[in-house]
Automatic annotation (TrEMBL):
It comes from Heterosigma akashiwo. Residues 1-93 are annotated as: Disordered. It comes from the Eukaryota. It is found in: Nucleus, Nucleolus. Belongs to the BRX1 family. One of its GO terms (biological process) is ribosomal large subunit assembly. This is Brix domain-containing protein. The lineage of its organism: Eukaryota, Sar, Stramenopiles, Ochrophyta, Raphidophyceae. PROSITE patterns: BRIX (PS50833).
Length: 365
């Protein structure tokens, strides 16, 4: 019995070995299955790629056209989504520290001296100095401005007690501009009804012609920095109740000063203007003075000197104008002398010749 059981066990083990595959066979079968699956997948991918290439070729032109529109839309979205800059209200502190030196040379007339006083009233950020008695050496003005801690200069130069020149400069590096001052009318002389608060800040109204050429733009910047009162200056008032206008006519700058007069008092006039929609009628301008005309002569690169950036070709100096008037008067004298000699010659040429029939010859015998 024991031998039979052993023989049956051996036969069962041999049959199991024949039916169960070995490890090598299992691995070979798995490799074949993977190769078949990868071949099928690669075929499907090739088909998909072929179809995709056809679609990309067909839609290439559409994407190029629509790409620009998408970019514009993205830019608009970015601008809309960009964080807005917070507008912080001004605290009125004195940050733009501008100081302007305002003085003149010796030899100014009373009218010029009154004009200088009026300009100082209009500029609460000015600084004074004694009259300059050095002729021709204007570079000294830069040293005086440095001593006074001024970065701007408004200098009146008088010549022959007749002509007045105005210099507007940025010290010490420049630029600077030289003007001839004409038609000066001071505040006391005009006796105008306008009256603004002393030390108030002005609106600066410039003509549109200041943007037509570079030299007018430079003159605009110089005048704006010189006459514009910086915000928060200790000697200025936190009010704006006047306007300084700078207009260009005939190649000259016409300067005038006005008061802003507001008639909005809450009465009948204001209510009637609100109903009609003409609120501009409530605000008007009343001239204060002074008024004067500036003729540009030359613009320099530096302060009171340097390279010439612009020179007015139509400018005629006052000396040349006066000399021309004297020549005209001298021509009148010469014309009178010529007229006398021609009248004498004419009288001599009109003498009647002797014919023998004169009274003396007829009754002599």
């Amino acid at each position: 019995m024991g031998k039979r059981k052993q023989q049956q066990k051996q036969e069962d083990e041999e049959s199991e070995e024949e039916t169960t595959p070995t490890k090598m066979e299992v691995e070979e079968e798995s490799d074949q299955e993977e190769e078949e699956e990868s071949g099928e997948e690669s075929g499907e991918e090739a088909d998909e790629n072929g179809e995709g290439n056809d679609e990309t070729n067909n839609n290439a032109s559409d994407e190029e056209v629509g790409g620009e529109e998408d970019k514009e839309e993205d830019e608009q979205k970015q601008e809309e989504e960009a964080p807005k800059v917070k507008q912080i209200p001004s605290d009125g502190s004195y940050r733009n520290k501008q100081r302007c030196l305002v003085f003149s040379t010796r030899g100014v007339t009373s009218r010029h001296r009154h004009l200088l006083a009026d300009l100082r009233r209009l500029m609460p950020h000015h600084k004074k100095d004694a009259k300059l008695d050095i002729k021709g050496k204007l570079q000294v003005v830069n040293e005086i401005a440095e001593m006074k801690s001024c970065n701007g200069v408004l200098f009146l130069e008088a010549r022959k007690r007749l002509d007045l020149y105005l210099w507007a400069a940025r010290a010490p590096q420049g630029p600077s501009a030289k003007f001839l001052v004409n038609n000066v009318h001071t505040m006391d002389e005009l006796r105008l009804t306008g009256n603004a608060l002393l030390g108030s800040r002005p609106f600066l109204a410039f003509d549109a012609k200041f943007q037509t050429s570079p030299h007018w733009q430079l003159i605009k910047s110089l005048l704006g920095i010189t006459f514009g009162t910086p915000r928060g200056h200790p000697k200025s008032k936190p009010f704006i109740d006047r306007v300084m206008s700078f207009a260009i006519a005939d190649g000259k700058v016409w300067v005038r000063n006005f008061q802003i007069l507001d008639q909005a008092d809450g009465g009948k006039v204001e209510r009637a203007a609100e109903k009609s929609g003409n609120l501009d009628e409530l605000t008007s301008l009343v001239e204060i003075g002074p008024r004067f005309v500036l003729t540009p002569i030359r613009i320099f690169d530096g302060s009171f000197g340097g390279a010439t950036l612009y020179q007015n070709p139509a400018f005629v100096s006052p000396n040349a104008a006066r000399a021309q008037k004297r020549r005209k008067k001298g021509l009148k004298y010469t014309d009178r002398q010529i007229a006398k000699t021609t009248s004498k010659e004419r009288a001599q040429s009109n003498v009647m010749p002797k014919t023998g029939l004169e009274m003396q010859t007829v009754f002599s015998g």
